[in-house]
Amino acid sequence: MTAAPIILLAALSTRTVTLAEAERAAEAQRPSVRVATANTAAGDARTEQARAPVLPQVRVEAEYDRTTGNRRQRPGRTTTVDNNWTFYNWFEGQVTATQLVWDFGKTLNQWRAAEMHAVALADTERATRLEAIGSVRAAYFRARAAKSLIAVAQQTLSNQERHLVQIGGFVQAGTRPEIDLAQARAGRANARVGVIRAENAFTVARAQLNRAMGVAADTDYDVADDTLAAVPGETGPVGPLIDEAIRARPDVAALDHQVQAQDLAARAARGGYWPTLNLVGAARDEGQSLEQTHTSDNFGQAVTLGGMAWNVWGGVQLRWPLFQGLLTRGQVREADAQAAAARAERDGLVQEVWVAVQEAAASVRAAQEALIAADEALTAGRERLRLADGRYASGVGSIIELADAELGAANTGAQRVAAEYALATARAALVLALGRR
């Protein structure tokens, strides 16, 4: 994850970035994608944590005390033990094992709910990756359009410079007034400003593309003339596209799994009303010293002092919290409410999918028609400029007619670029709305 940005940063200034490369960079380096990937890993880890109570629990404890051994004296009883404040060592060691047998599905449903949460996070990661690809495509097409507008601006400047030379000759020959020359110079200056603005817009568009790719780099690179092919089904009815989107979109799948997780969490909360049955076992070793001392008493009998003594036990444990101040009731109500909220959120997303697919499909169709119209306008604008140029050269047309034709040609060129950009971005939006890559 850390090496990829370095490779891309080194390459941006030496080559042309393609759409496929921009998409790969966004998937690998965009911060939102990296956050989603980390969230998925955290969800898997929480699944392990939720599974832990189902497995055997083994605990080892050790303790050392320096203590007195005084016994409590009860009134009315005699004892031969004299209490004193003598300190001695005391060692304890214990191994305890517990195995859950049954808790009416509480722990099992918590584990399954954690698994569903993890699956939902994985679906969210896929949705984040698709969003990253959609964003980088939009930024790429915007940069590509800005690059094309530079060509339009340069073509306009070339026409203005050619006309300036032509008009200068006419003015020197006395066939045209000097105001035509001043008009041509103003047109050339405006065309130069247009080129500067187009180049600056391309720089800004590449900076925005860098952000969409998730890289920090300069803008000293070019973009290829890549675009999106026609989306299968874009000219057909919208109904099948909506059905496909609901089935395929990972954000819808994430909410489906979220609903399942909340239902399981509610079932786990209801398990809190019932007892828990465990198998328990332990081994304990305790005594005054780690080693035994062998001696004899006053009668010559062997006596063992100190040392440790082992004890083992096992059994069945039943725990039933009969009343906890309505804690379980509140947990059940909360889980039910969260499940209802997840269902409502899922229904809201489905409604958004309907709107998104319909809008994207309509935008694609409108952009296709607009591109056809822009091609016709571009052809007509270039023809108009050619005719105006010939009329002016033959002395029939005016400088105003020529300037209008030049402006019209520039505008139709820009409209053609905008129409092509609109179609590419509309297709990218449709692909995203359908949950495709």
Could you explain how this protein is built, in words?
This protein has 437 residues and is an alpha+beta fold. Helices cover 64% and strands 16% of the residues. The protein has 9 helices and 6 strands. The chain has helices at 3-12, 19-29, 31-51, 106-173, 178-213, 238-248, 250-270, 327-393, 399-434; strands at residues 16-17, 57-68, 87-102, 222-223, 276-296, 302-319. It has a 4-stranded antiparallel sheet, with no helix packed on it. The longest helix is centred in the N-terminal third of the chain and has 68 residues, at 106-173. The model is unreliable at 1-13 (pLDDT under 50).
CATH superfamily: Outer membrane efflux proteins (OEP)
**Which residues form runs of ≥5 with pLDDT under 50?**
1-13
Q: Would you list the SSEs in sequence order as H and E?
A: HEHHEEHHEHHEEHH
**What's the architecture in CATH terms?**
Up-down Bundle
CATH class reads Mainly Alpha
Radius of gyration (CA) equals 40 Å
The tally of helices reads 9
Distance between the termini: 21 Å
Q: Would you tell me the overall average pLDDT? A: 89
| SS-derived structural category | alpha+beta
Number of domains: 1
Order of strands in the sheet with the most strands? 2-3-5-6
- CATH topological fold name: Outer membrane efflux proteins (OEP)
By DSSP, the count of extended strands is: 6
Which overall shape is indicated by the principal axes computed on the Cα atoms? elongated
The main β sheet shows up as: 4 strands, antiparallel
